[in-house]
## 1
Amino acid sequence: MTTQWLYRALEESRARGFLGPLPIEVQIEHALGFERVWNDVSDTPPSRFLDLGSGGGLPGLVLFDHWKVPATFIDSMIKRTSFLSEVLSSEGSPDEGRVLTGRAEQLSRDDLLDGSFPLVTARSFGPPAVTAECAVRFLSLGGFLIVSEPPDDDETGRWNPAALGQLGLHLEDRVRHGAAYQILRKVRPTPDRYPRSIGTPGKSPLF
């Protein structure tokens, strides 16, 4: 059941231009697809999770409201993290939500964040190579990265297994729960050189 707090937060996010014009219910349903994908790989909710490039709060706010486990929201834009901090301090918000402003390439090397999350979610963060490199160091060994995917199931070659292997990631299934999602699992520790310096994953992608 979606709480009033979540509806208010997402309506405000849309009013500030952080979300698209689709009905809030449709956007919540897409975000809940991440939860259904997680259920494909685990019988219990994650102990914590990180939402990569949280922006207007999807899917992170929806998952936080649903699971009520410690959640970390990161984004490089102050106006978006200010919004997230505002809604997470409002009445009805679950406890233990944390917002960080900065680039993933740098934040993931923080001792408190490095290898700390069994789940990282990403919706519209960037191309596959950028998303994978920026997410991988946040993941604990055995953890999962779940990424929202384009709807065309015939589109192949977005993810390069060999390059992902350099990061310590294994390409798992592409699944559908209404929308399409890609699952990746961290099977080896992240080499020290990844992620590369700020901006490099986008300027010189691994694949």
Note: The chain has one domain: 4-203.
## 2
Amino acid sequence: MILLLNLLWVLFGGFILAVGWFLAGVLAAISIVGLPWARACFNIASFSLWPFGREAVSRRELTGRGDLGTGAFGLIGNIVWLVLFGVWLAIGHLVAAVACAVTIIGIPFAVQHVKLAAISLAPVGMAVVARRQAG
């Protein structure tokens, strides 16, 4: 079932938003300063392309310890991210969620878009893992 949902996701809009995440990562990687954001973008791009059966969780929750991206620098990075890229990617996911929610069949896709919109606001310090590993 997860495979079918992911294939339908890619066909009906997931690919476009994954490309948006990838392009944001490329823009961030152009400068050396943007590399932490680029890493977050590429991780979330893969999640945005194939979201069912996976979750995005804080690396602090996953490993039980903090790191550079989950501390004060991660907070500053997420604030900068929010202003430059996060709002636009979140709006894209919310528009896609509304479009998907118009039909009953599209509701699972709308839920995924809302989750991705939330991640769009603060991706630094997040890791994408299999759902069974996140719980």
Note: The chain has one domain: 2-134.
## 3
Amino acid sequence: MTTSVTRRGAQLVLAAGVLLCATAQAQTTVYKCVDAQGRVEFTDTGKKGCKALDLPGYIPAPPQRQGPAPSALRPSNAPAAAPAPSPSNFPRVDTSQQRARDDDRRGILNEELRAEEQKLAELRKVFNNGEPERQGNERNYAKYQERVAGMRDDISRTERNIEALRREIANIR
């Protein structure tokens, strides 16, 4: 008698858990399986002797589509779908206005490039070919090495910024 009460309690707990946990909805069908010894198992794979459970509030996942992909259905000589045209009320910029915007952008990027190049020159001057002057608070050689490594990182970052700015300027029409 206690075994059936325990099974019934386990079933109720499982059902209550599924009902109460709305955020964790199952994505497949839940099956109740009873083996030859009378042990109950809940699984998502249907086996011999298993019964699909009807769980209230359960929304099954859509069935997996079998068959070829949509692109495989189209004959090879058929043209691909043309991109959707932009709406007629889509804002357009005339050529002269776009050229002025590109010139402004080029000017801003050139200013940034000059600033980064000046920063790189100052960093290299202070770096002194890998042997910057030691500061008073750097009695410990490890502190000095840490500062030198940070300087190398700053120089490397600035060089990458300069390369990126030059690429961006080259991409402007």
Note: The beta strands are 31-34, 40-43, 50-52.
